[in-house]
């Protein structure tokens, strides 16, 4: 496709004049509010657990389904972006995804709550739209940085949710409602946010710099999916790596408040605050991982990118082990900040490699690796479900798994195929903050 309005060569963060930058800001905002709907219940789980009389095993099942539906949804949403365009796909996901967010307050027992949680998990596929839409709006030399910034700011919703939802809950209680009523009414807020962003998305974005698919007559040519990429071990190494970083991120978003309440006897609001600090590091950490990966790639090629990913995974695993053994809240917070930094850098560093592994099948590789993140979150949920494993033990086991994955990544030769050699020659990404 030939663009009359070309993809941008710079990221002008404070500009809304171009369709590219308007789409950039609205698409990360879309992912941000979807995180509110997706994980809005997580910081309220201490209250919900008591209200519905949930066992540890049932809470574990809820954690599992909260991320499992996203695995399949991400693959479907990716195909819909190709056929409908990211704009229509986003608007429809927001509209239909808001329905279970609004209605989850009708759940009165474990089974109904579980089903609503599964339905809500579908909106986690909004990540695919954000990455797809951002890629359409920026030139190849800065796609990685643009995607890392958009993905990180969208993920920021997980941190803000942990902080804000307990405050919304407390405000509703302050108006005289019971805890039983308050957590249900609180979910109306993210539902309304999703509807508001659906309007913004429909009115102020375009699928491409040239216009929407139907306006520019874009043909969605059906091509045969090249499943031979599954024979490439490097893709599985990256999938495993993303399971250990993003999979751990969404797992921590789910269990952090419960852990701080049960282990350190914090109030729900205080637990939500500290859990929110974990998510707030997405303001810079994921983008930092992608940016450093690009810089290392310029000097050391794909080998350097792989070594960086291995290092941040090893550091993440070490931080998780310290967090699991923390005997005081202070030490736990310090360890959390440490492993959070490296975890989110690993998110960005993983996708600093993905586009160069198989340049003819970037979309397919991105989908496989992205789904791996949610698969990791689902599998980790089984550890937190077990009646015989404490949360501290679960964090330790995951820490060891992350370290093992770091070693695997270190031994993987990402630059094996000639097609990836050009990675070292990629120009330095440009991020500007001047107003336009």
UniProtKB/TrEMBL annotation:
The keyword Membrane is annotated on this UniProt entry: yes
Q: Quick one: a GO biological-process term for this protein?
A: nitrate assimilation
Q: Which UniProt keywords apply?
A: Cell membrane, Membrane, Nitrate assimilation, Transmembrane, Transmembrane helix, Transport
| Localization | Cell membrane; Membrane
Looking at the record, the residues that make up the Major facilitator superfamily (MFS) profile domain are: 23-417
Organism domain of life: Bacteria
A GO molecular function term, named singly, is:
nitrate transmembrane transporter activity
Keyword Acetylation set for record: no
Q: Where are the bilayer-spanning segments?
A: 21-39, 59-77, 89-107, 113-132, 153-177, 183-202, 233-252, 264-285, 306-324, 330-354, 361-382, 394-412
InterPro entries assigned: MFS (IPR011701), MFS_dom (IPR020846), MFS_trans_sf (IPR036259), NO3_transporter (IPR044772), NO3_transporter_NarK/NarU-like (IPR004737)
**Entries under SUPFAM superfamilies matching the protein:** MFS general substrate transporter (SSF103473)
Alphabetical GO CC annotations of the entry are: plasma membrane
Give the membrane topology, semicolon-separated if more than one. Multi-pass membrane protein
Q: Which Gene3D superfamilies match?
A: MFS general substrate transporter like domains
Q: Which family does it belong to?
A: Belongs to the major facilitator superfamily. Nitrate/nitrite porter (TC 2.A.1.8) family.
Q: What is this protein called?
A: Nitrate/nitrite transporter
Query: Which organism is the protein's source?
Result: Chitinophaga lutea
